[in-house]
Amino acid sequence: MKKTLIMTLAGFSLAISSLTWAAEPVLTGDPVAGKTKSATCAACHGIDGNSTNPEWPSLAGQSEAYIIKQLHNFKAEQGNADGRFNASMSPMAAPLNEQDMVDLAAYFASQPAKQGEADQTQVALGEQVYKGGNNASGVVACAACHGPNGNGNPAAKFPAIAGQHATYVANQLTAFRKGERHNDAGKMMRNIADKMSDAEIKAVSEYVAGLQR
Question: What domains can you pick out in the chain, each with its CATH number?
Fold first, then answer.
């Protein structure tokens, strides 16, 4: 009797959980609404998501999943394990609700990314590290997560980095290495960047800037 009661209650609990989960709305991003909402983003990221300032990332063609994750991380309170603080972005993300985020992500993801330029004196080393890593120091090949052409992995929320500003990429790798940025799952990026030399960071950053999506 007791066993039957426990099984019945467990089944009832699962049914309630399933109904609750099913009742949660799945938001769909509206790129038209996102374009309107992106007006305040244009100063740094460009009207179409192609930033002209190498300090700020281009968002055009970036996966929706990655953009939404970063907006959530910027909105998170300082000290949050998944938080990503930036003096400019954190205040911008603070008032955004979930619909705002998915709309912005839909808009920027729909925009064509412009081709970047690489310093050709750096691409040989950059390609070597990007595609093959560095066995001596334990640096894992960037292509393993970001793809051979730098298109990223939306399902895993790994960003597309092809054509991204070399300055921005180098700044982020350095921030991961210093532990100043820590919103990477399982310390994945921190562990990789920690083993990269300044020369490797510069070379990889230049190499990905020249990749075409």
Answer: 31-110 (1.10.760.10), 123-209 (1.10.760.10)
Q: What is the pLDDT of residue 82?
A: 84
Helix (H, G, I), strand (E, B) or coil at 158: strand
Which sign does the torsion angle of CA 59, 60, 66, 72 carry?
positive
**Contacts of residue 134, Cβ cutoff 8 Å, sequence gap at least 6:** 195, 196, 200
Helix (H) or strand (E) holding 177, with range, is helix 166-178
The DSSP secondary-structure symbol of 1 reads -
Distance CA 198, CA 28 (A): 41
Check: pTM over 0.90? Answer yes or no: no
Question: Binning pLDDT at 50, 70 and 90, where does residue 80 land?
Answer: confident
- The pLDDT-based confidence of 13 (bands split at 50, 70, 90) is very low
